[in-house]
Amino acid sequence: LATVFLGFARTYYLAGIFHAPLPSLIVHIHGAAFSCWILLLVTQTSIVSAGRIQVHRRLGIAGFGLACLMVILGVLAATDSLVRQAGPPGRDPRFFYIIPLTDMLIFATLISCAFRFRSDPATHKRLILIGTVALMIAAIARWPFFLQRNPIRAAFLSYIFLAFLAAYDLWSTHKLHRATLWASAFLIFVQQIRMPIGKTAAWHAFAAWVQSIAH
Fold first, then answer.
1. How many angstroms from the chain centroid is the CA of residue 65?
2. Are the beta carbons of 119 and 93 closer than 8 angstroms?
3. What is the pLDDT of residues 165-183, one digit of tens each?
């Protein structure tokens, strides 16, 4: 919650949220939905801590619906940015397009698995957390003390959350949970392999095709 607020405080939360000067309606809706996810994460962990498991499960069904909507909105917002030629200064918008798309791929995969393993609390909560880490790059890259938005640096900083989770595993059970291992490995693998893929002619041709039909 603090990571997201710090990243988007100036341009979104302290700018009036729906009154913030964002470039399009889809970006407004995207920001609202993703903010609701972070609030839901805090709410759900608080409900579990209070022992209200049945409430947590019922709310979790709505949360899964929100996650599905977020994936659609994430792709639409990324495509909107591509059409507007937006992105970090000095970055090719067609190259940058692969970053939000693969973030949505990671998020969708891990949250779907979390829903599948909802009867296994230890696995479920780890998949939810790591799936949410996939969304942190946009917020971290916008931290006010960074002079430039750098998604590569932001990705590496987001791995601090994975390190905290691994430390928690070792402290609480004296071993890494299997979900921590494979979900973290999946997230890191996709985030690292996308960089060389994004520089290929094939990816640029795909991004140009999307740009042409979405314009």
1. 16
2. no
3. 999 999 999 999 999 999 9
Inter-residue contact 13 to 69 (CB < 8 Å) = no
**What tokens were used for 85?**
């030629």
Determine the Cα–Cα distance for residues 154 and 158; give it in Å rounded to an integer. Answer: 6
* Cβ count within 10 A of residue 155: 23
Please say whether the beta carbons of 207 and 130 come within 8 A.
Answer: no
Pull the structure tokens for residue 71. Answer: 């994936």
Closest CA to 188 of 166, 168, 207: 166
* pTM metric for this prediction: 0.92
Using DSSP's 3-state secondary structure scheme, residue 88 falls into coil
pLDDT in tens, 23-50: 889 999 999 999 999 999 999 999 999 9
Which residues does 96 contact at the CB level (< 8 Å), separation at least 6?
Answer: 81, 82, 87, 88, 151, 198
Structure tokens at 99: 């970053």
Q: Which residues of 15-52 are buried (b: 16+ CB within 10 A; e: fewer)?
A: eeeeebebeeebbbbbbebbbebbebbeebeebeeeee
